[in-house]
User: Which sequence fits this backbone?
């Protein structure tokens, strides 16, 4: 009797072959998603879509115009030159006050790093004036300097000076004693010691203070312009917002607010981010 053995049955499996084009597209999509600007663009697009949906659901242009209406008002303001002119006026005043505030903060911090009386002076002044909102000084500024650019510069300098001075001084305090001793061994003292030893080592804190000071100065300027508006006969971006609110052009109000936000984003990504890259990350002091 012969025994017949059936051959083993091989298990069948199905394989899906991915086309080469799709295989190349998947890593490309992952690499694109790693780009910060793309992720932020997607977030902004989602926020715009939510805004458009809420505005259409509410159906009241006086209270909340749609995103498309705001974009149209923004484009018309750019095309007519009115919005650009208001932005120019505001940025001119802001940059002047910002530079004055930086110089004052550097002088005060250098004095604090060099002498004990300077350190006591800085600690006392920052404890007194840093908690004081800059816009709260606007009535006094109007009384002292009148209705003009000097009043705006006064409140902007106040907004910039104290956070920058605190940031720079905190950075100076965190400088290792080894670097200080190395500077003294090379015969550095006074201003040379501050410039060659303390400032490079304290750059993370200084850049952080610059960013905070810019944000404080920008919102202080807009708030001040909303209060009294014109400077030397010219209204800035805050006055543009206030004037259109009085005339019930809500889409232009939102266009002005959008300009404030866009300028903030532009300064952060075009000015401060490269500054951090060139000064801080380049030296391995921040990830």
Assistant:
């Amino acid at each position: 009797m012969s025994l017949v053995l059936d051959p083993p049955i091989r298990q069948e499996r199905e394989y899906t072959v991915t086309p080469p084009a799709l295989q190349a597209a998947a890593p490309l999509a992952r690499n694109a998603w790693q780009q910060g600007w793309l992720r932020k663009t997607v977030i902004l697009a989602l926020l715009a879509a939510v805004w458009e949906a809420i505005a259409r659901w509410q159906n009241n242009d006086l209270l909340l115009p749609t995103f498309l209406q705001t974009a149209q008002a923004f484009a018309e303001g750019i095309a007519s030159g009115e919005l650009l002119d208001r932005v120019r006026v505001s940025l001119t005043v802001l940059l002047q006050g910002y530079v004055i505030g930086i110089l004052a903060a550097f002088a005060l911090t250098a004095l604090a790093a060099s002498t004990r009386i300077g350190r006591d002076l800085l600690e006392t002044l920052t404890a007194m004036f840093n908690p004081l909102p800059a816009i709260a000084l606007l009535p006094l500024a109007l009384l002292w300097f009148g209705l003009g650019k000097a009043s705006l510069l006064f409140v902007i300098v106040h907004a910039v000076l104290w956070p920058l001075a605190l940031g720079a001084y905190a950075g100076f305090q965190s400088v290792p004693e080894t670097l200080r001793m190395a500077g003294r061994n090379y015969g550095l003292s006074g201003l040379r010691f501050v410039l060659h030893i303390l400032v490079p080592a304290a750059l993370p804190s200084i850049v952080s203070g610059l960013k905070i000071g810019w944000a404080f100065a920008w919102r202080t300027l807009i708030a001040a312009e909303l209060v009294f508006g014109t400077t030397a006969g010219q209204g800035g971006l805050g006055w543009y917002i206030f004037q259109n609110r009085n005339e019930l052009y809500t889409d232009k109000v939102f266009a002005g607010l959008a300009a404030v936000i866009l300028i903030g984003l532009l300064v952060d990504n075009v000015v401060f981010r490269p500054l951090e890259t060139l000064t801080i990350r380049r030296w391995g002091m921040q990830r």
Remarks:
- Residues 71-283 form a domain with the MetI-like fold fold (CATH 1.10.3720.10).
